[in-house]
């Protein structure tokens, strides 16, 4: 059996996650997408990152976590813009995102 190149394997992870979500396996889909995001980020596969973030947003929507979904979509839009304009790095304030989705926002929600 021929092994898939790593980038092809990573490209399939968001699709596999979406399939798990459609089968109603939300917990499994959540674990799978988080693992996929770690691998995709580590490999620097920005185009696949955009798709994976969209799938993570769908999982959050299914679970009723609107804020998490919005953060994933905003991160995906920022990643997509970075692909289209690699030398353009707008500040988060210009994007209107502020600090809603960063680590400090998570601390506010938890603490």
Describe this structure in words.
Helix 1 runs antiparallel to helix 2 and helix 1 packs parallel to helix 3 (46-62). Mean pLDDT is 78; it is low at 92-97 and 106-111. It contains six helices and no strands. The protein has 111 residues and is an all-alpha fold. The protein has one domain (6-110). The protein has helices spanning 6-22, 26-43, 46-62, 66-84, 92-95, 103-110. The chain is globular.
Average residue-wise pLDDT: 78
| Number of helical regions | 6
Strand content: under 5%
CA gyration radius, whole angstroms: 15 Å
Short précis:
The protein is mainly α and 111 residues long. 75% of the residues lie in helices and 0% in strands.
For this entry, give a set of tags.
111 residues, single chain, globular, mainly alpha, disordered C terminus
Write the layout of secondary structure elements.
Elements: H1 6-22, H2 26-43, H3 46-62, H4 66-84, H5 92-95, H6 103-110
């Amino acid at each position: 059996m021929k092994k898939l190149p790593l980038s092809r394997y990573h490209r399939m992870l968001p699709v596999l996650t979406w399939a798990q979500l459609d089968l109603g396996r939300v917990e499994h889909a959540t674990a799978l997408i988080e693992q996929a995001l770690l691998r995709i980020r580590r490999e620097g596969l920005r185009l696949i990152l955009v798709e994976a973030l969209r799938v993570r947003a769908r999982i959050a929507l299914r679970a009723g976590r609107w804020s998490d979904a919005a953060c994933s979509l905003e991160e995906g839009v920022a990643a997509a813009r970075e692909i289209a304009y690699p030398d353009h790095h707008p500040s988060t304030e210009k994007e209107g995102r502020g600090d809603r989705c960063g680590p400090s926002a998570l601390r506010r929600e938890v603490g």
